[in-house]
Amino acid sequence: MFKYHTLNAISPKGLVKFSNNYEQTDDADDADAFIVRSAKLHDMQFSDKLSCIARAGAGVNNIPLDKCADQGIVVFNTPGANANAVKELVFSGMLLASRDIIGSVDWVLDNKDDADISKDMEKAKKNFAGNELAGKKLGVIGLGAIGQQVANTATHFGMEVLGYDPYISVNAAWNLSRNVKHIANVDDIYRECDFITIHVPLLDSTKGMINKDAVDKMKQGVVVLNYARDLLVDEQAVLDGIRAGKIKHYVTDFPNPTTAGQPGVIATSHLGASTAEAEENCAMMAVDEIMDFLENGNVTHSVNYPDCNMGVCTAKGRLAILHHNNPGLIAKYTTILGDANVNVSDLTNKSRGDYAYSLLDLDSEVSQDVVDKLSAVPDVIRVRVVK
């Protein structure tokens, strides 16, 4: 029996996917797995029993990834599960920036008691006139799960779309519309596009990438949209661009004291993934990841260990070994198993930076003595008997 602990409210449509071999526990120290949304785990002490953490969402800045890796705790996220929800909000942001919908709504509220509102609005509506998206040029920076959906959908709005992603995956490339022009230099987006939307992860290399230099290259009247992470944008540089007339609007899902209420800023309260469907999709994917890991040792969508998959375990035994990415370890594992007269029928080893993950299918079960010997090998972080 496996036990899981939820640190936030998780959609029941996800939790119901757990089989009868799982039960929920309120005791974090007794859990094999955590499911979390936004709860901050950096100051939390993890028990030796905890094997994995699934983040029902994409961002994992609330989870101490290195600390987890050093304790042999695999951390998953759920990329793409909320992509449609974010994509739809991006287009609402573009429409709000193109048409003064907010100003029009406010006018109606201010004049709700006017008996002649139907006549007066015909005079007032010219103050809220805007532009259409069709025929405009959109630059999409980052063509992952969300970026590619934004790019593809924009073509159906009649927009000309430029996409930039030097690390685009094969799957993303296949899913990208042929009408999206994939460019090699992000400066082309800054110089040419009427709308620029950013969909990249927050890394040291991307932090503040929309900076003064980028703003200076942008065309007059550009709209900048940020539904990814606030720190991707140097917000002071963007506000300076608004004041200078270079940027028409900055549309963001991450208001803070710097941007909230500022002229030219359209801010929403982090609504990107706040739909019932997105929460359900994230929860269901998180549960699938946990079950496949605990039952088969397979790692899918990990953010601190390499992905590794050997399918459903049909062998008599399977071991998962989490270790540092150093040479010679596989030979040590097979020597220990061979000395115990345990045959390895299949083996997969994957690495990611300083960490690696090995799955070994065995023709027989292993004793605790063998597990202890494997655990004692230098650079081994954790040994898990999957079966």
Measured between the Cα atoms of the first and last residue, the distance is 13 Å
The largest sheet, given as strand count, sense and whether it forms a barrel, is:
7 strands, parallel
Q: Compute the number of helices.
A: 13
Structural class: alpha/beta
What's this, in brief?
With about 375 residues, the protein is of the alpha/beta class. The chain contains 13 helices and 16 strands. Helix 3 crosses helix 6 (about 145-155).
Characterize the structure shown.
It is built from 13 helices and 16 strands. The chain is an alpha/beta fold and 387 residues long. The protein has a seven-stranded parallel sheet, with helices on both faces. Strands 2-1-3-4-5 form a five-stranded parallel sheet. It has a four-stranded antiparallel sheet with strand order 14-15-13-16, with helices on one face. The longest helix has 21 residues. The protein starts with a strand and ends with a strand.
Secondary structure elements and pairings:
Elements lengths: L1 E5 L5 H4 L6 E3 L8 E4 L15 E4 L9 H6 L3 E3 L6 H16 L2 H10 L6 H8 L12 E5 L3 H12 L3 E5 L5 H6 L4 E4 L2 H7 L2 E4 L13 H6 L4 E5 L8 H9 L3 E6 L12 E3 L8 H21 L20 E8 L4 H11 L4 E9 L2 E8 L5 H8 L4 E6 L2
Parallel strand pairs: 1-2, 1-3, 3-4, 4-5, 6-7, 6-9, 7-8, 9-10, 10-11, 11-12
Antiparallel strand pairs: 13-15, 13-16, 14-15
What labels describe this entry?
elongated; five-stranded parallel sheet; 387 residues; seven-stranded parallel sheet; 32% helix; alpha/beta; single chain
